[in-house]
Amino acid sequence: MPTIFETTNFLGKIHHIDLLQYGKQYVTSAFLFYDGKKTLIFDCGTSNDLNPIINYMGKHKIPLKSVKYLVPSHHHFDHNGGLWKLIKLVRKHNPDAKILATELEKSEFQNSERHMSAARSTYKNFVGTMSPPLDEEFKIIDPDTDFQFGNDDYSINLVSTPGHTNDHVSPTIFKGNTPYFCFSGEASGTNMNLSKIKTLPTSMPTQFDYKVFVNSLKKLIELKPLNTGLGHFGAITGQEDSLFFLKEHLAFISEFRQFCKEEYEKTQKTRIVVETALDKIFKPRCDYYEKLPSIFQNNVLALVFGMLIDLKIKENKY
């Protein structure tokens, strides 16, 4: 299988960590780049999810003082709600550590009240806490620009991939001119199937924009990454399978959009669309659906509702 679901060093300098979000396996991922001297951490989960990262680093003798940058994909609580907490912990060991982000990401992280209010309405007490990182804790770089982080062989590019959120980037490690590892976050859908590559949507309110999302997905296809990391869940290894995954989602997201439109037109009831989506889309495409936390049903509601908002069928009240 080209998919990586376990917590492991799967690609030389790249490590995958299951954050065990909501107390369950296979929900949300973080990644590390470690070259023996410097560490980059890609996403970190909620403020309640930091232990798997810290424990992994300790077990594999990756010192906290080696962390140079935290590299978030976007501001959502389930991926980076704990960013403020992790940067403070890391800076106790390396005072020069920074959050490597775009100006737009910084703005979203420092003004997260609206997002957290919407998140709590959907996910209740699972969201943790989210505080604004300080100005001096950021290193701001332009998106779509190569940035040397202290390793002559590798550079990083915060590839701008909005659509899921306005600030979304897909941090990509380049080896020379080759896109060695692309952390696509939620710019390419999700893969929550242990046996096959079957994508699921990321059409989440409040900022989802279908046309922008599709353009970002096409941008990642043109990038042709050798390996791809996902926010939900794990990684896809090899260029051929990475492109298969990206193209599969390009086809699927159009089908999901049409499904939401047609099912809503039948009954004019969001609840029925969600129930139908659970049975016809989410359960067949996620082969461990029954093992997910019950709160995942709220997630399906949000994904359907996000698409209905983009279709102008529902009003964005967030």
Descriptive notes:
By secondary structure, the protein is α+β, with helices and mostly antiparallel strands. The protein has a single domain, classed as 4-Layer Sandwich (Metallo-beta-lactamase, Chain A), CATH 3.60.15.10. It contains 9 helices and 16 strands. It has a 7-stranded mixed sheet. Strands 2-3-4-5-6-7-8 form a 7-stranded mixed sheet. The protein has a two-stranded antiparallel ribbon with strand order 13-14. A hairpin with a 2-residue loop joins strand 2 and strand 3 (14-18). The longest helix has 29 residues, at 239-267. The N and C termini lie far apart (40 Å). The model has no long low-confidence stretch (mean pLDDT 95).
Strand element count: 16
Number of helices: 9
Kindly give the count of domains. 1
Give the percentage of residues in beta strands.
15-25%
Mean pLDDT: 95
Q: What is the architecture at the second tier of CATH?
A: 4-Layer Sandwich
Shape: globular
Report how far apart the termini are. 40 Å
Class by alpha and beta content: alpha+beta
CATH topology heading: Metallo-beta-lactamase, Chain A
| Rg over alpha carbons | 18 Å
